[in-house]
Specification:
Layout: H1 2-16, H2 25-33, E1 38-41, H3 50-58, E2 62-66, H4 70-82, E3 90-93, H5 99-110, E4 116-119, H6 121-124, H7 127-133, E5 138-143, H8 163-170, E6 176-180, H9 185-194, E7 201-204, E8 212-218, H10 222-234, E9 240-244, H11 248-260, E10 265-268, H12 274-285, E11 291-294, E12 307-312, H13 319-326, E13 336-342, H14 344-354, H15 359-377, H16 382-389, H17 404-407, E14 412-414, H18 416-428, H19 435-443, H20 448-452, H21 469-481, E15 485-488, E16 494-497, H22 499-506, E17 512-514, H23 539-556, H24 560-563, H25 566-575, H26 580-583, H27 591-611, H28 629-640, H29 645-651, H30 656-668, H31 676-682, H32 685-697, H33 703-710, H34 717-732
Parallel strand pairs: 1-6, 1-7, 2-4, 2-5, 3-4, 5-6, 8-13, 9-11, 9-12, 10-11, 12-13
Antiparallel strand pairs: 14-17, 15-16
Helix pairs in contact: 2-3, 14-15, 18-21, 19-21, 23-25, 23-27, 30-34, 32-34, 33-34
């Protein structure tokens, strides 16, 4: 056993540069090496990928990894290649490849060079591929995002249910490892049954993500909520994040508002064409876009470890969706901030969507909403709530103030009397009204409805007029949360009594609710903590390393994190490695990665150490690019997307004249821009030729001189400015 452990430790260091396993990784990997069917439930960021990547490296043959999204495959392949000197160690096989590219992939597999092959289930169904795999030594099959198998899972894919049939058709006794981040007992049972996993080893890791800070804020008007989102993002300048919304319209509108506020953002939703979605995702991975505003269409395809924040502008539909989406923050083990904006209006919208659904789906949806409502309204530890939902016990003292309720405990008041009054009001009105009407009744509002039905004659009419609408809304919400009443969604959300509520009216028990849920977002601007994961001693060097990483990533055409992840850079900024050998001692840097990417980093650090007093690194200041560069990036991206210049100007709060001045500066700095699409629509061909010819012969590029020369030909100043930009871009750059 000791020898086996040493073998695994050596392999981990050799292939991936890590010194130790996380959680159950070692036992899971040993199970795969023993060719046992293995089922793994491990939270996002827990290290699922290593559980099949390392045994694939160690075993004879090629491991097939079934993955749901093309983008996810590409990221995984790039990441694995980053740890090795050989690109053919990992491939993907899907519809994005040409026939010649597919031929190369299959040749590498037949030659035994490829250890991991990522494939979509749709590709695996093709008979030619199954026939090919019959000739290949397959070490095992890994089913990633295995919850897609189950009709009860939240990302059901019908093709996933055919995986077992396809494996059997290959005709070999191939072990299977199925992996997912979240799965209820019903989903787990469905996965195991569908994959026909015999004598399996089952591993369920803790769902706790102790590096994530959970917080919920009241959602007010759109303008205020967006303002709060901007505050959050600007408190973490240059960091990557995701904002989840429910509608395509919200994705577009909020992305535009962020761009206006100098935040490099882009929308992502199912209404965009595939090429646009792919480009947006690539820009996010390459850090050319910092923030994605997305519907849930932006899901499993993201494999970016350094997402620093996840914001829910709209409340998610279930705790499982919430856990999956927030789990995309801090996958590198460093801090992540998870902010949810909660509004009862959002709940009402979701309820409306459920009214036309079948009874079973409606009841399940209502239960899921009740749970997310309970999470948003809870005054206890949010981490404890989440873990309890997944069946895991947790002591909230271990939260270490990593949620808003533990960091800022809310004062509570006893509302036993008021709750009893509210339930009695529901009974007096024959359980036939929604919350708004009940609040009006408690407040004694003389509405037409109250007068027409003579509700104003009842004993409880106006019994709570000394309290405001917010108070009584909160009372009825907590009646729902404590299962004293339920909401009949089929009948427009009428509040009905439960047996527990009837018992409460007879024998009330002590009930407390938070006094004030509406704390200011600014009080939580600095509420994350690194938990001592790393210590960056030289922030100046850290920024230099990030800049170098981005430059190399662009040259290599891979996402920056494939070169080195943030924890590796932080370790470099602490340890100052100045040789390839020392690079190999940095966390997350294998020998292959050190040889592949380490040289420019070690050389930069060596020069920095020689040129500066390391005890006083702040004496050396890296020049910061002016804030205006964000606008320039937006302008260039707008032109690349062929957006009309007027629209680019307005989205950046510029006049057209100011935009042309910015374009002047952009081309003067050596950047090429292609505005031909705009010129074709707005400047006639003859004027273009005249202006272009003028600058070709002129001694000066002065716009004023050109205008004085050409104005008699009915050429405008604006046309001259535009053609001058094209001329300088074409000729000078």
């Amino acid at each position: 056993m000791v020898a086996a452990n040493e073998r695994l430790q050596d392999a981990l260091q050799t292939y991936f540069g890590f010194d130790s396993f996380k959680g159950d990784q070692e036992a899971i990997i040993q199970s795969v090496l023993d060719k046992q069917d293995t089922f793994v439930i491990m939270p996002t960021g827990g290290g699922k990928s290593l559980c099949y990547q390392l045994p694939a490296m160690m075993m004879e043959g090629t491991a097939i990894v079934i993955s749901p999204l093309i983008a996810l495959m590409k990221n995984q392949v790039d990441s694995i290649r980053g740890y090795s000197q050989n690109n053919n160690i990992a491939h993907f096989l899907n519809s994005s490849l040409t026939k010649s590219q597919m031929k190369i992939v299959k040749e590498d597999i037949m030659n035994g060079d490829t250890k991991l092959l990522f494939i979509a289930p749709e590709t695996l169904t093709k008979q030619e591929n199954i026939d090919f795999f019959k000739q290949v030594n397959i070490s095992f099959v890994a089913v990633d995002e295995a919850h897609c198998i189950s009709e009860w899972g939240h990302d059901f894919r019908p093709e996933y249910r055919r995986i077992r049939t396809m494996i059997d058709e290959i005709g070999k006794d191939i072990p299977v490892i199925a992996l997912t981040a979240t799965a209820t007992p019903k989903v787990q049972s469905d996965i195991v049954k569908n994959l026909n996993m015999d004598d399996l080893n089952h591993f369920v890791s803790s769902f706790n993500r102790d590096n994530l800070f959970y917080e919920v804020h009241p959602k007010g008007k759109k303008e205020q909520t967006v303002r709060n989102i901007v505050k959050i993002i600007k408190s973490m300048p240059g960091q990557s994040g995701i904002i989840y919304v429910q509608s395509r319209k919200s994705a577009e509108e909020i992305a535009k508002l962020l761009v206006v506020n100098d935040i490099i953002a882009a929308p992502y939703h199912a209404g965009l064409d595939a090429k646009t979605r792919s480009n947006t995702q690539d820009q996010f991975l390459m850090e050319d876009v910092h923030v994605i505003v997305a519907t849930i269409a932006f899901g499993m395809g993201i494999d970016k470890p350094d997402v620093r924040f996840v914001i829910h502008y709209d409340v998610p539909k279930s705790i499982e969706n919430y856990y999956q989406e927030t789990g995309r923050a801090g996958r590198d083990g460093l801090e992540g901030r998870c902010v949810t904006f909660y509004s009862h209006r959002d709940i009402h919208k979701l309820e409306k969507f459920l009214r036309d659904k079948p009874v079973a789906e409606r009841e399940m949806g209502a239960q899921l909403m009740q749970e997310i409502m309970a999470y948003a309204e809870t005054t206890s530890c949010r981490r404890k709530f989440l873990l309890h939902y997944f069946g895991e016990s947790y002591n909230e003292e271990d939260c270490n103030k990593m949620c808003d309720n533990c960091k800022h405990p809310k004062e509570k008041i006893n509302v036993t009397t008021e709750m009893r009054q509210a339930l009695e009001a529901i009974t007096q009105l024959n359980e036939n009204y929604v919350t708004k009407t009940l609040v009006d009744f408690m407040r004694g509002e003389e509405t037409q409805e109250m007068i027409s039905f003579q509700h104003n004659k009842l004993s409880h009419f106006g019994i709570g007029k000394d309290k405001d609408d917010n108070f009584w809304n909160s009372i009825f919400r907590h009646a729902l949360l404590n299962n004293l009443v339920y909401k009949d969604i089929e009948n427009y959300g009428l509040l009905k009594m439960t047996p527990k509520g009837n018992d409460f009216m007879q024998t009330p028990f002590n009930l407390e609710i938070p006094l004030n849920h509406n704390y200011d977002i600014e009080t939580l601007e600095d509420n994350t903590a690194s938990n001592g994961k790393t210590a960056v001693l030289d922030k100046t060097l850290m920024q230099m390393l990030k800049d170098l990483r981005k430059r190399i990533a662009k040259e290599k055409k891979v996402p920056p994190f494939v070169v080195f992840q943030d924890p590796s850079l932080e370790h470099m900024a602490t340890m100052y490695p100045i040789s390839i050998e020392e690079m190999g001692n940095i966390t997350g840097v294998s020998k292959g990665k050190a040889l592949r990417y380490g040289k420019p980093f070690s050389e930069m650090i060596s020069d920095y150490v020689e040129a500066n007093d390391i005890d006083r690194p702040t004496d050396f200041v890296v020049k910061q690019v002016a804030n205006k560069s964000k606008v320039k990036v937006n302008i260039i991206q707008g032109i690349d997307r062929k957006i009309p210049l007027g629209d680019i100007a307005s989205s950046n709060n510029l006049s057209l004249e100011e935009l042309l001045h910015e374009l002047d500066m952009i081309v003067a700095s050596g950047t090429k821009v292609d505005i031909n699409y705009y010129l074709d629509e707005n400047v006639d061909e003859y004027s273009r030729e005249d202006i272009y010819d003028y600058f070709m012969e002129a001694d000066s590029d002065s716009v004023e001189e050109a205008f004085a020369e050409l104005k008699e030909d009915d050429i405008t100043l604006e046309e001259i400015q535009l053609i001058r930009i094209k001329f300088l871009s074409d000729m000078a750059n």
